[in-house]
Design brief:
Nuclear Transport Factor 2, Chain: A; elongated; about 35% helix
């Protein structure tokens, strides 16, 4: 009888567990803050979210994995090229370790970037995917963007004369 009770309690415990990484809630809030800060175009504030050692995937065709300095230049380029930037999240999802498939506290998000190109005045709205991985201090150490960056830049470029 004790074994049946123990099995029942363990089954109940496991079925009620979210299986969520303990850092996910914290990292989710940091991710949401990052998007809120990015749209203000406060480059120094955005920079503060990144650890000293970063690996970040560019959204451009053939784009490299970038270090911290390259990542910040990439982000600054987006801020300089666009005005009235907004992020409309469709959802935020927990990430997983690519080797184990287990929750690792990282955050994934799908949503729409909108804004206006500074040079042409043309507006854009595009669906994008981002992932961010954090260290124990809540700094971004890994991440990437997936969307049609090259297509977006071409679509909002000034008209040829």
């Amino acid at each position: 009888m004790k074994k049946i009770l123990l099995i029942t309690v363990l089954t109940l415990f496991i079925s009620c567990s979210t299986g969520q990484h303990p850092d996910y809630a914290r990292n989710l809030e940091i991710t949401k803050e990052w998007f809120d800060v990015f749209v203000t175009e406060d480059f120094e504030a955005v920079s503060a979210y990144y650890a000293d050692e970063v690996e970040y995937q560019s959204a451009f065709y053939g784009g490299p994995i970038m270090n911290r300095e390259e990542t910040l230049n990439y982000l600054k380029g987006w801020q300089d090229a666009m005005e009235e930037i907004t992020w409309e999240a469709v959802n935020y999802l927990p990430g997983a370790d690519p080797e184990t498939g287990l929750p690792n506290g990282s955050v994934r998000t799908y949503g729409y970037w909108s804004g206006t190109n500074t040079a042409s005045g043309k507006s854009f709205r595009g669906l994008w995917y981002h992932y961010l991985t954090f260290d124990e201090d809540g700094k971004i150490v890994n991440g990437g963007d997936f969307g049609d960056a090259t297509g977006l830049v071409m679509a909002v470029a000034p008209d040829q004369e």
